[in-house]
Design a protein that fits this description.
A three-stranded antiparallel sheet has the order 5-7-6. It has a three-stranded antiparallel sheet with strand order 8-10-9. It has eleven helices and 13 strands. A hairpin with a 2-residue loop joins strand 6 and strand 7. By secondary structure, the protein is of the alpha+beta class. 40% of the residues lie in helices and 19% in strands. It has three domains: 83 residues, no CATH class; 90 residues, Arc Repressor Mutant, subunit A (Orthogonal Bundle); 57 residues.
Length: 288
C-alpha cells in the first residue's frame, strides 16, 4: 500500500540502535550488562570466584593469556582474582598485596611464563601465545633503542656478548652506579627490550633477592621474523587483551601498552572492520 500524507510518501520505520547492545552474527543481541557479567565470571571479579589454589591461578593465567599483577585497568589481574585481605591493611605498595597469595605471581613466572614491563612499566605475566604476539614488537624495539642511545647500545651489546647477567654483575662489569644502571634499564624494560626475572643469591647462611637481566631475544629466542610489522603485531596484541578482559572501554585500549608510536588512529576501526572486535556502547569485545 502506498501510504501518503498529502503529497508526501511515508518512509517505513527503522528500528533505532539500542545503547549497550552488541549484535551477533546470528542476529541475536548481547547486552553490555551481559558482557560485564561474563567478564565478572571469567576474570573472577566476585569473591565467590576467588582463586583458592596455585593450580587454579595457573589455569587462570593460561585461560586469559595475559594478566597484570594488581588491578589498574580492564585487563585481568591475578591479585584481584585472589580476593584476599592485604598483607598490611591501610598500607601502600607491597602492603596492598594479598596476605598469603602474593608469591603466586613470582611462582607462575618460575613455571616458565615471562613477566614483562610492557604494560606501561607495570608487571604483565604472559603465556607463550602472547609472547609470540610480542616478539615482532620487542625485536623492532631492540633495533630502534640500540641505535638511539650509546648507553643503551653499550648495555645491549654487553648482554649479547656475556649472556643474561645479574644486576650486580652488570654494575661491576660496566662500572655503573646503581642509579645509572636503573636509569638505563627502566625504558628498555618498559619497551620489552630487556626482561628481568627475580633470582636468589647466596648471602651467608641465607640468601638475597636480585635480578637477572636478559635481552628480549635471549629470554625468547623465537624465530625473529624480520618481515613482521610491529604496528600489525600491536593490533594483534590489543585484540588478545580484549579477549582476556572479555569487554573493555574502548578509550582505555591505547593506554594498555608502552608503544604509543606504533598506535594509529585507525587501529580499533580496522579490528572492528575485520570482524576481530565489536563495539558495544563505548566498549569493545571479541565477537563469539
Amino acid at each position: 500500500m502506498d501510504r501518503r500524507i498529502g503529497s508526501r510518501r511515508l518512509r517505513p520505520l527503522r528500528p533505532r540502535p539500542v545503547a549497550g547492545i552488541c549484535e551477533r552474527d546470528d542476529g541475536t543481541v548481547e547486552l553490555l550488562a551481559e558482557l560485564l557479567q561474563r567478564r565478572a565470571f571469567e576474570c573472577r571479579l566476585s569473591p565467590d570466584r576467588a582463586l583458592q589454589t596455585f593450580a587454579e591461578a595457573e589455569t587462570f593465567v593460561r585461560d586469559r593469556g595475559l594478566v597484570t599483577r594488581t588491578a589498574d585497568c580492564a585487563l585481568p589481574s591475578l591479585y584481584e582474582a585472589c580476593h584476599e585481605d592485604p598483607y598490611r591493611p591501610g598500607g601502600r605498595g607491597f602492603a596492598t598485596w594479598p596476605a598469603t597469595k602474593w608469591p603466586w605471581f613470582g611462582g607462575l613466572a618460575g613455571r616458565g611464563w615471562l613477566v614483562t614491563a610492557v604494560h606501561r612499566g607495570k608487571n604483565l605475566l604472559v603465556t607463550e601465545e602472547v609472547v609470540r604476539l610480542l616478539d615482532p614488537i620487542c625485536r623492532a624495539e631492540t633495533t630502534r633503542m640500540r641505535a638511539a642511545d650509546p648507553g643503551w647500545r653499550r648495555l645491549l651489546d654487553h648482554l649479547a656478548a656475556t649472556g643474561p647477567s645479574s644486576a650486580d654483575d652488570l654494575r661491576t662489569e660496566l662500572r655503573l652506579k646503581r642509579q645509572e644502571l636503573n636509569a638505563l634499564l627502566a625504558p628498555l624494560e618498559r619497551c620489552g627490550v630487556i626482561i628481568s626475572r627475580s633470582i636468589q643469591v647466596p648471602a651467608g647462611e641465607g640468601h638475597l633477592h636480585s635480578s637477572e637481566l636478559a635481552r628480549w631475544d635471549q629470554a625468547y629466542p623465537g624465530h625473529g621474523d624480520a618481515d613482521s610489522d610491529p604496528t600489525r603485531a600491536l593490533a594483534d596484541l590489543v585484540a588478545a587483551g580484549v579477549r582476556a578482559a572479555v569487554v573493555a572501554p574502548e578509550r582505555e585500549l591505547r593506554r594498555w601498552f608502552s608503544w604509543q608510536w606504533y598506535w594509529t588512529g585507525t587501529l580499533v576501526d580496522s579490528l572492528v572492520r575485520d570482524g576481530r572486535l565489536r563495539r558495544a556502547d563505548g566498549h569493545v569485545t571479541v565477537p563469539p
